[in-house]
């Protein structure tokens, strides 16, 4: 019986590998693997981030913290998997309908995926969109220089960009804090507000805040 079971598994693996080599299934299989990669990558990215942010800034029991980490990881992993699946599926469909791949296909497929998957305004989606927005601004700036739409800077503009970004974000934090994302508010509160408060050496060097009633 054991030998027969092993033979069946090996036969199944051979059949699966044969299907994976078929060119006619390549587009559909790429969509499925995109779903798999989106789920795995989303979990890899979100789990350590959620772990650090939860234990640094969130209160509650260990069970509540672990539940929050698991929920954030699941949401990020699911959304990225759904988006990649939608995007690659629409790309394959458009290419099949028009007989070729053109640049607009990518923009259109991603717009639809973004609307369907990331359209809900929640903390996870908000973080992902802001992450992408910063990369887009840098990418479009470089593209504009490459295409000649704006002249090549004579000096590296990065120091000026860094100064303006830090100046703006600290001004917002000090005077319009509610406009910033909650996780950024938490980080900046820890860095700039909590460092103004201490009572003795324990909460000056060892702890951020005292937990007793001294």
UniProtKB/TrEMBL annotation:
Annotated signal sequence range: none
Cellular component, GO annotation: peroxisomal membrane
InterPro entries in the cross-refs: Pmp4
PANTHER family (alphabetical): PEROXISOMAL MEMBRANE PROTEIN 4
Protein name per UniProt: PXMP4 protein
